[in-house]
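User: Show me a protein chain along with its predicted structure.
Assistant: Here is one chain, sequence first, then structure tokens.
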Amino acid sequence: MKKIKFNIYLLLILGLAACNSTTSDKTNDIYKASYGNGTNTINLATGSPGELGLLKELAMNYPAINDVKINWIKAGSGKSLQLLKEKKVDIVLVHAPKAEENAIKEGWVKERGLIGSNAFIIVGPKNDPANINSAKNAIEAFTKIANIKAIFLSRGDNSGTNKKELHIWKQANIQPKGEWYLITNDFMMATLKKANKTKGYFMVDNSTWFAGKENLNNLKVLFKGDPNLINIYHFLISSEVPKDSYTYKFANYIISEKGQEIIKNYGIKDYGMPLYNNAANK
């Protein structure tokens, strides 16, 4: 009997240890990557700038990188702002202007600064069944796609890209639904790859397109150049973060001459052209 009780007790201990281990693993999994080994931490949420390597480039060239550890949480703009509101991150790099302005009005964001920009484009199958190549603007391009119910992929994740896409549908007085409208609930590059696989249309930022186009043989750029598709990035800092913190120092570095030079030139080495415009050239 004593042996049985001991074994049960041992199993309970192991079970609790396993639970604790799982919890710890899940906590660590929220960070897509970390840069630096300092004792001061900055928790930062963003999507494409992290996915395409711009955040890493900025972080590893940050003069105080040895003093900090920058934890990147991979999240679209909507989720990033939610994490900031819930005080789970200190700073975000996002492209959702109306949501950003609301955050300032509501008081949970103290500081907002212009980082730079890229632009949205619409890619699709090379034969362009909806003939969006002849569209005069993005609204007309979306209308043409909906009229023939051509496959269109939507991130559907409340990201800045998703917000912009839904705004254009609203401007076109179209409520997209049906088998032709595919919601991925995924990030930019992953959705772009799905568009290539399904030979569907997708509104993507040109940075992601330039970075991934070599492996996207079923797609081509079919529409670009609408001023409505300029995609502007800002940093936003939680109202809980003190002004003398490393978070503010890192934000100031991003908008400094050195940080802006990195943004302006990022991508040239690997892709032959910059992936982003800096603040001066937005």
